[in-house]
Model the fold of this input.
Amino acid sequence: MAPARQTWPLYGAGFTTAFGAHGIAASLGGFSEDAVTSLMVLGGLLALYDGAEVLLKPLFGTLADRIGARPVLLGGLIAFSAASGLYVVADSPGWLWAARLGQGAAASAFSPSASALVARLNPAAKHGRAFGSYGFYKSIGYTLGPLLGGVLVWAGGLRLLFAVLAVLGAAVAAWAALAVPVVPPLPKVRQTVLDLARRLADPAFLAPTSALAAATAALSVGVGFLPVSGRAAGLGTVATGAAVSVLAACAAVVQPRAGRALDEGRLTARSGMVAGLLVTAAGLACATLPGVAGVLLGAALTGAGTGLITPLGFAALAASTPAERLGQTMGAAELGRELGDAGGPLLVAAVASAATLAYGYAALVVLLSVGAVVLSARAPRGAST
Done:
């Protein structure tokens, strides 16, 4: 495994993108100044970050393959710091939109680059553990983002939160510049659009990417809708927040252990992803049960299932991808995750609007179960090791 001093800044980058995404997203809804004047404005601000990632992650992943992942990582972190500082200096509603868009674009650069470097700096036999650790620190960012973001906004408004993110981005960039070695791009055979389409249509890419998208969809549904179920069960705001924290904490705890089990041969990527999909489906099924027990079981099992899928999915992608195309693959896989992040809540909300929230959960349970059956029936290349 790569020396810790080389990979720790990459984990810091994962924490930064997760903390930046959820810290601000969770704080905007309670921000009552002129910058956020309606639910429509709030929705637009939330969509800016994810929209930029959907459009730009594959492009920056390809750029990382072309010029090297390290400069794209550093450039993205510096741009993230600059975009965050923009709102601190300008402090106006219009610049909040620009800052949020800039943060999303910057995260689109350093997130897939960090994933590619995790793969390049670690031997294939240690990919499970490396991606498990990377996912662990992202989960910590997702867990702490709403909590610390809320504290910072309470103490000094959005400007203080953006200031902290500016400092965080700059600090991780400096850390990475000092510790992450130069990893030159590898020579590669010229790729046509048809070649790219064939590779992205290969089960070796589609299977783990679909599992990652399903995990992200379930995680997003859990974060967004379990509080609704909690309120229906009579839980207060603090208790529903604790339930979401249980989900994120379970995901954080499981990821390194799943990666270690993969590296030690106690688990294959395919069997682990199948199990993860089934555990996640069981969690969402529990969320349909009335009362506090259903909410807590739903949070714990959904977190554990998604935590099982994430490092194994990325390890399977790294195993089946030529090293010279890692950035492109990770960027495309991140796109799949973003689509799951948006599609899961939309599906559940649409079904819940027509019936009840329990039926919304059930619809996603069916999709996850079907995905598990399909994945178990056909092992993608590179996913059985």
Notes: The mean pLDDT is 84.
